Amino acid sequence: MKNYIILFALFLGLISCEKLIMKPNAKIDNRAIFEEYTKLVKEKYAMLEFKGVDIDFLIDSIGNVITQDMNSDTLFKKLAIITNRLRDGHSSLIGVYTSGNFENIATFDLNEGFPIAFNDTILRNNYTSANVAPNLKRIAIDDEGTSIEVLYGFLPQSATIAYIRIPSFNITLEDEQLETIFAEIKNATGCIVDVRGNGGGDPSLSTKIASYFMSETTYTGYERFKIGPGSSGFQDSPSNVTPAESDNRFTEAVVVLTDRGCYSATTTLCYNMNPLAQVTFMGQRTGGGSGSVADGFLANGWQWSLSTSEFIDHLGNHLDDGINPDIQVLFDNTDQSQDEILDEALLYLQ
Amino acid sequence: MRISIQLVFVLCAFFNVHGQSDSTQRTKKVESYFQLSGVYTSFQDAKFSNIRYNGIGTGIDIGRKVIIGIHSFQYGFQLSYSNSKSSTFKLDPGFGKIGIAREFHPTLYVKYMRELNENFSVGGRFDGLESYFRVTRGLGNNKIYYNVGANLYGKGSYRRKLGDKWEIETGIELGLLSFMRESTGFAFSAPQTVLTNGLFNYQDESTSNPFGFKHYELRPIWNYGNLNILADVKFKQRWTFSYTWSLRRFSTVENYPTTIGIHTLGVKFNFIDKTKKRRSKKKN
Questions:
Q1: Chain B (253-272) residues lying within 8 Å, Cβ to Cβ, of chain A
Q2: Which terminus of chain B is less hemmed in, N or C, by CB atoms within 10 Å?
Q3: Does A161 lie in the same domain as A84?
Q4: Of the residues A56, A85, A107, the one at which a domain ends
Q5: Shared domain check, A199 and A337
Q6: Last residue of some domain: A47, A80, A107?
Q7: What percent of chain B has pLDDT over 90?
Q8: A45 and A190 part of one domain
Q9: In this complex, is the C-beta atom of B48 within 8 Å of any C-beta atom belonging to chain A?
Q10: pLDDT tens column, A183-192
Q11: Average pLDDT of B44-50?
C-alpha cells in the first residue's frame, strides 16, 4: 500500500512538473503591468530611434507615478502615453472588453492633420458603378464579413487606359484571378492602380501584385527586424522582388493613386513599385505603416500590438510616416461630380 | 530531415542485426489499439509573455503493435485537442471568446523496443510528424503559433506483472535529436533563423508555411528538451489505463524559452489480438 501511495504522489508531482521549469507566472498588479508593457515596447518596438522616442525617460517619468492603488482606467491612460508617443498606427493598446465593447483604446490617428483625398461615393457614382462603367469587371470578395469589390478593366472615361481598384489587401486573390485581371488589361496603353483607402492586409498579396509590373528582379529596400532585446538587436532582410511568372505582366506606364488611408500592406505595394521607372505616384501622402506587427496580451488581459520591424526603401528612406506622391493633387470633397486625383491620372497617362 | 531518417534506419538496422541471432522459437503477437483520453496542457512562450496558459481537452491514439519474440514494433497516430486559457486573466466570453486558444497536437509515431530481460526493455521512437498548433482568438499576426518537426527519442521501459490479470509498465522517452521549426521569432511571427539570417521575403512561402523544410533546424538534445514519461496499467491484455506526460522546452532566442507540457490520461482497448508461435532458423 505504501508503494502505491508513493506512486500516486509521484503522479501528482508530474502533473505540475513543467510549471517548475517555466518562467514565473506574470503578475497583474499595477506595477507589474506597467513593467510588462514597457519591457515589451523597449525590447520589441523597432523604431524607437527613428520616432525619436526616449523610452528610458518615459519609463522613469511615468513609472514614478504608478501606484498599486491606481484604478485600471488611470493605469491605462498612463500606459497610453507611451503608445501614443510611438505615433504608429500599427501600435495600439486595447483595454478590457466589456459587454461587447472595448473599454479603452489607445492608437495613433493617421488622418489627423491630413486632407481627405478619397470619397468612395464620388468614385462609384461617377466612375465605377455597374451602370456607369459596364466595361469594368468585378471580383466580389469577403473581407471579414464585409463584401468588397476588386475592380479591373476600363472606365467610361478612357478605352485605352486600364483601371484597377483594390480597396483592401485583407482578402484572398487566387493566382488565376490575378492572371485574369492582368490578361484583361494586357493591351492597355497605361494603367491606374487605385489603392486609396486601402488600409492593408496581406503583404504577400501586395508584393505579388507589384511583381506583375516588373520586368526584372528589383531591389526595393530592406526590412529591419528586431531579433533580440538589446538596442542593437536588429537584422536586415533585403527585399529583391522577382517578376511574376506570367505572360501578362504589365510594363507600360502606371499611375498609383494614394492617400493617407494607404497603410501597412499598401505601403508594401508602394515601396515595391517605387523603384520602377514607369511608375508614378499621385494624390496625397500615404499613411505609412511599413513595419511588421506582433501582438499579444498583457497579464491583465489588455491587448497590445507593436511594430517589430521597419522597412527602409531602395533610396534609404524611412517609410513609416508615409510616402509623398511624385505628383501631389488636391481633392475637393465638396464637388460630388468628379474625383480630381483620378481625372489627373487619366490626363497624365493620355 | 534526411539525417533524422538515416538515424532511424541505422537504429532499426542495429536492433535487427542483434535480434536475428538470439531466438530459435518466436512468438508473434499483434495488437491493434484505440485509446480515448483526456488531456491537460500548459503553455508559455516567454518571447511574448510570461503568462502561463492551461488547457483541457480530449485526445485519441490509434495504432498497432507487433511483438516478435523479444522485439516489438509499434506505429500509430495521436491527436489531441484542447481549449487553453490564460492563468492570469479572464475576459468577457460574450466578446468572441477573445484570448482563448485552441490547441491541436497531432503526432505520427513509430517505436521499436527490445527486451533486455523479463522486466526491462530499451529502444527508440521516431515522430515523423509531430506538431503543436495554437490558434488564439482575438490576435492578429500572432494568432497562430506552431511548433512542428520530426523527433528521434531513446526509450527505456520497465514492466512488471501483478498477478495473472494486472501488469504495470513505465517508460521514459528522451528526445535525442529534433528537426523542427517554431513559428515565432523574438518579435515577429516568423522563425527566428529566418530573421537572424536576413532571409525574410514575402515571395518565399516557406517563411510562413509550417512545412517549409528550408527553414527547419536540426537540434540535438542539449538544444531541445523533449521528454515523454509513460505509465500504463494493463488489465487482462485488453484494457490499458494510460498516463503520459510530454514536456518540451527549448529556446530559439536565448533566455526566452518556450515550454509546452501535455498530460494525457486515457483508456486503451486492444481490439485485435493474434498470437502465433513459429520456429525460426538461427542465424550466425
A1: 253, 257, 259-261, 263
A2: C
A3: no
A4: A107
A5: yes
A6: A107
A7: 73
A8: no
A9: yes
A10: 999 999 999 9
A11: 95
**For residue A263, what is the domain's CATH number?**
3.90.226.10
- What type of residue sits at position B176? L
B170 contacts chain A (CB < 8 A): no
- Inform me whether the C-beta atom of residue B208 falls under 8 Å from chain A C-beta atoms: yes
B28-274 CATH: 2.40.128.100
> Does the ipTM surpass 0.90?
no
Decide if A310 contacts A224 (C-beta within 8 A). Answer: yes
* pLDDT for B278: 61
Please give the model's pTM, rounded to 2 decimal places.
0.88
Residues A125 and A99 in one domain: no
- Write out chain A residues lying below 8 Å of B86, CB-based: 297, 299, 301
The parent domain of residue A162 ranges over: 120-214+249-288+323-349
A242–B contact, CB cutoff 8 A: yes
Domain segments of chain B as ranges: 28-274
**Domain presence at residue A143:** yes
